[in-house]
Amino acid sequence: MGETPPDASMLAAFNLNCNIMDSTTQAFKTNSAAVAVLAVTLFLLSGAPVIAGEGVPEPPGYRMDDYRAPVPETVAGATTVSTQQLKAMIDAGGVVLVDVLPAPRKPPNMLPGVPWMPVPHHNIPGSIWLPEVGRGKIPVSVNAYFRDNLAKAAGDDKARPIVIYCRIDCWMSWNAAKRAASYGYTAIHWYPMGIEGWEFENLPLEVNRPVP
Q: What is the pLDDT of residues 89-106, one digit of tens each?
């Protein structure tokens, strides 16, 4: 005996259920996407500094230009540290903090006699500020300036922990960390979140001046 074919009402009910399931699935996908977008938007609106360098490869040498751009997650010869790790290092004591942000330069078109008052620079308390040492190519004099001040700050101890930073997405701190490691220092740490990352966690800053 053959099976009884479904009547029109059964087919209509089946199609209705399928349509309801399709609509529910689509609504779920739409709501999930909306929640994801909302989460990202809220995170960005929070002002949290974000390193956009995931997947950026390390160059074989130094970065030569365009220093404010996404950076790699690592630097050869150094250890990358987070804000929490840096704070723990500072609390433990004995760490050398090196800010390598370039110092502001007097505008060349300023009229004679007009006082130049650059904005005070704030960085992590206890730091030494060594500007210009993070450029891709540095003069012999700047190289000697970097070497001498690192040796002085570390007490000629090349195993002493040294943390190098500037700002977020700043290749100058990456270059400087790589350069310091080339001098033979074995405990170089790189803090890529920089001054913005430190300040975002409501940690203190202080006014500083470049080492002459």
A: 999 999 999 999 998 877
